[in-house]
Write a structure and sequence with these properties.
- The complex is a heterodimer of chains A (602) and B (88).
- Chain A is an alpha/beta fold and 602 residues long.
- Chain A is globular.
- Chain A has 24 helices and 16 strands.
- With 88 residues, chain B is of the alpha+beta class.
- In chain B, strands 1-4-2-3 form a 4-stranded antiparallel sheet.
- Chain B starts with a strand and ends in a 6-residue tail after the last helix.
- Classes of the chains: A alpha/beta (602), B alpha+beta (88).
- The A-B interface holds A 93-94, 97-98, 100-104, 127, 130, 133-134, 136-139, 141-142, 145, 148-149, 323-325, 327, 362 and B 10-13, 15-17, 19-20, 23-24, 42-43, 45-49, 51-52, 54, 56, 87-88.
């Protein structure tokens, strides 16, 4: 959205000035509402001496608090299992076992009896001892796990102090603001009272993001400094489309967002009626419109938007959102579920792309200086063949239940494809031996996202079954621009002449070998890029589900020949600005309303 | 008393959940179970104690089992180590 939406007041100073914060857009939609701040208060544990005659009572009180906490956790566990499945519920098993821990009970009781310490202080002391001995060790992964122990500690102490351990919940529909939300927090929120989520921590694959998308509720996460600025009752705007949150909006800002919401709704309704129509140009060329997904919860939304398949199924989420390696069985279940839900439509599963910005702490021991050029994607998988084979086995097994394809990320050398092909052959042999059913001919394609892959596109086209151009990384590596660096972020331009030239090379190489090319980066969902991609001759747009109708609308309003002519015109230009101006005037005459939607220029 | 030594085989070590699996097995036996990571000691029936041994992958763990059902307990616990706490 353009920044002009955010008006500054010129009149008398408002009591609270408008504040805007940008975060990670984790679930689409725009909401104006009242904030409900989910308070993660700090507990101060009182410390006092108990009367010698009353120590037995104090021990009983302690045991009772453990029992009460156990009851509460079991309720939570059942609730979460019902709504989110067994895997999510399992985290509570370890919590419950802590409450039963003999050493914990004995040591705490002894402290109460011998030192005449009050129960809360005694329990706090013993728990802190355990936490300290774990936190003192080198292993980053084990260290992180003290979170669970701290969580249990807090619950028990709250019971001892007679504090309410339930999440205070809003009684009317509100925007939930928090530092971070744990599964046990969101489990206690009533879906009907949640308008949106805005949190300081978390990213696109965090628990809250996945939950928000499956609930169809807007969410902006990773806001860093919103929690401290907002109080319950404040008016807030959460724009999940752009990742913007506005605190204390001025009347002018409110008004323009109201208009934006109305426009967004109308557009949504209009576009949804398109979902039954093909992505066909006026001159009859048909384009694949597929969805980029992070988790199986998003499949239904993608189908509703008219996705003809899954163009990119990212598999990082269960490697990152949990604290152990997912088993073959666990992965198989998810891949199979996606394949079955898509009902024979193609599902492209990208093998693990950890590294770069997505690091699972148990996989990576030490942070790299330059992770985007480091041990990631296929490089990681080929050195951790154990992890890679487990994933490939799971994907092959899922291929018995739908139309599954395998896609390799971060390819820069031909050996990476050849070695993977050998590993796939091994996997097929093993699966045959183990008597599993699978598709013998699962296509093996590659992401084209390094300049090296483009330069050698003709060679890769001989070895790969399909190309999918990952424009986000391709632009980053080609322009040598880190988008996160605000000083140079403006240099990140996917319509730059250099990028268009690389796309042309890639498409030409694919054409000669008659393999399919899709574009799965953000560029595929940019209205300005759509006519260019058509004109360049790609076959498929793979975008986030909510973008499908809009891309389709543009495709349906143009002809292939016009787009080809547009590409020829922009090929003359030397700057992105000229190219964008040319496309804008093209869109204005062909798809007039597309320029009103505020998505341009972001 | 019997004792045995086994390496922690699962990738992420004896963290809370793996410790939980250990306790689940240990709790089925009346024998006393003492677990050592070098100098550090934990009661084999205490999830917090086991977790605070901070044993990462490959650490050699010494287990002492003592009681009327010690042989059965030893077998069950060794099997758990061999199964890498059902994780990988």
């Amino acid at each position: 959205m353009s920044r002009s939406k955010l008006h500054k007041t010129n009149g008398p100073p408002a009591s609270k000035p408008q504040v805007e914060r940008r975060g990670i857009s984790a679930s689409p939609g725009i909401v104006i509402g009242t904030a409900f701040v989910r308070d993660a208060e700090r507990l101060t544990v009182p410390r006092y001496t108990v009367d010698a005659a009353r120590t037995d009572d104090e021990v009983r009180r302690f045991l009772q608090s453990l029992a009460d906490t156990g009851k509460e956790l079991r309720v939570l566990k059942t609730d979460i299992r019902g709504r989110m499945g067994e895997d999510h519920a399992r985290i509570f098993d370890a919590h419950l076992m802590i409450l039963d821990d003999r050493a914990l009970v004995d040591e705490t009781s002894a402290l109460i009896r011998n030192e005449r310490l009050n129960a809360a202080a005694a329990f706090d002391t013993v728990m802190n001892r355990f936490i300290a001995s774990i936190a003192g060790i080198e292993d980053e992964y084990l260290k992180e796990r003290t979170v669970d122990i701290r969580d249990v500690k807090k619950r028990v102490i709250k019971h001892l102090l007679g504090k309410n351990t339930r999440v205070t919940r809003p009684d009317s529909p509100s925007i939930i603001v928090a530092r971070d939300l744990a599964p046990s927090d969101t489990a206690q929120l009533d879906r009907r009272t949640v308008l949106a989520y805005a949190t300081d921590e978390g990213g696109r694959t965090s628990h809250t993001a996945i939950l928000a998308r499956s609930q169809g509720v807007p969410a902006v996460l990773g806001l860093e400094s919103v929690f401290d600025r907002v109080e319950t009752g404040d008016t807030l705007i959460v724009d999940g489309n752009t990742g913007m949150v506005v605190i204390h909006p001025t009347p002018e800002t409110l008004e323009s967002y109201r208009q934006e919401i109305t426009r967004f709704r109308m557009l949504e309704e209009q576009l949804l009626t398109l979902s039954g129509y093909p992505g066909q140009t006026l001159d009859g060329r048909e384009y694949g419109l597929t969805a980029n997904l992070d988790s199986p919860d998003e499949v239904s939304a993608a189908v509703a938007q008219g996705a003809q398949g899954v163009g990119l199924f990212r598999t990082e989420y269960f490697f990152i959102s949990q604290d152990y390696l997912p088993s073959e069985e666990e992965q198989y279940k998810v891949y199979r579920q996606v394949a079955e839900k898509m009902d024979g439509k193609p599902v492209v599963i990208r093998t693990l792309d950890v590294g770069g910005d997505k690091i699972a702490s148990y996989l990576y021991r030490s942070p790299e200086l330059n992770p985007f050029m480091g041990w990631r994607g296929i490089r990681f998988c080929l050195t951790r063949k154990d992890i890679f084979k487990t994933q490939l086995r799971a994907i092959y097994r899922a291929s018995a239940h739908g139309s599954v394809k395998i896609m390799l990320p971060m390819i820069s050398q031909i050996e990476e494809v050849l070695r993977t092909r050998d590993i796939c052959a091994e996997v097929r042999e093993e699966l045959k031996r183990d008597r599993y059913k699978f598709d013998e001919n699962v296509p093996l394609g590659i992401m084209v996202e390094t300049p090296s892959a483009v330069a050698l596109a003709d060679q890769f086209a001989r070895e790969a079954a399909f190309f999918s151009i990952g424009t986000n990384d391709l632009v980053q590596y080609t322009m040598a621009v880190d988008r996160g660096n605000s000083k140079i972020a403006h240099l990140y331009q996917h319509l730059h002449p250099s990028i268009l030239r690389l796309l042309r090379l890639t498409v030409e190489a694919a054409r000669r070998r008659k393999i399919r090319v899709s574009v799965c980066g953000e560029m595929a969902g940019d209205p300005l890029a759509v006519p260019i991609l058509i004109g360049l001759g790609i076959d498929e747009f793979s975008v986030s589900p909510n973008m499908i109708p809009e891309v389709k609308r543009i495709i349906r309003a143009v002809t292939f020949d016009e787009c080809r002519a547009l590409v020829r015109r922009v090929n003359r230009f030397r700057t992105t600005a000229e190219i964008e101006a040319e496309i804008e005037s093209f869109l204005k005459s062909h798809v007039p309303t597309v320029l009103d939607q505020g998505r341009l220029g972001t | 008393m019997i004792e045995f030594v086994k390496p922690v085989g699962n990738k992420i070590g004896l963290h809370l959940r793996a410790a939980g699996e250990f306790v689940k097995v240990a709790a089925q036996f009346s024998s006393e179970i003492r677990v050592y990571n070098g100098e550090k000691y934990a009661n084999g029936k205490s999830i917090l104690g086991l977790a605070s041994l901070a044993a990462s992958r490959g650490t050699m763990i010494r287990v002492e089992v003592e009681g009327s059902d010690e042989t059965a307990a030893q077998k069950a616990l060794e099997a758990l180590f061999d199964a890498k706490f059902y994780e990988d």
